[in-house]
Amino acid sequence: MKTKVSLGLSRKSVLELVGFAKHVVSNITGNAFFPSPTPALIRVSDAADALQTAYDHAQGAGPAQTAVMNQARLALETLLTALGHYVEDVANDPVNVNTGTDAIILSAGMDVKNTFSRQKQVFTIRRDELPGSVILLAGSVRRGSHEWQYTLDSTNPGAWTSVTSTTEAAVTIPGLESGKRYWFRHRSILPGGPTAYDGPIDIIVQ
Asked: Does the global pTM surpass 0.70?
């Protein structure tokens, strides 16, 4: 059975749609699984910028500006839908069977359709016996490794601290401050590039 891409474009607000488009472009850029994206990523980026501009102009304006924004949204959704079909075709190509369709789709910053078990990996946190230490556990991947990060401030994109990547689907993070709430996230590093991050998940360190 062919694995399908889930985009959920109609459920996204304008700003969410713009952010999603930029996230997908970032994930596909340089990703070895997608050497010739169709449509070209620059078209998607330009359409996202155009929608952002149209949205800004429509704030507090009249129906004409809103109509322009709606047309810009339709243009971006059309491009993202086409890009989703391209990612879907690559993921289901038999030459990529060893990597897995789900992992390839996730590496594009997109989700997998219709089955909860095929959504992004859910990693878990377990308190270690030692104070100030936690154990992170994720699903295993073939021909890949795992990247782990933590932060005391999940709202600050620049505050994440990376832990040494592992080939095992588990890592122990020591040296944390007891009594503080930390956020953790994880992603898989595959031959074609990294997947989107799972999380963040938070825990108060003992």
From this structure: no
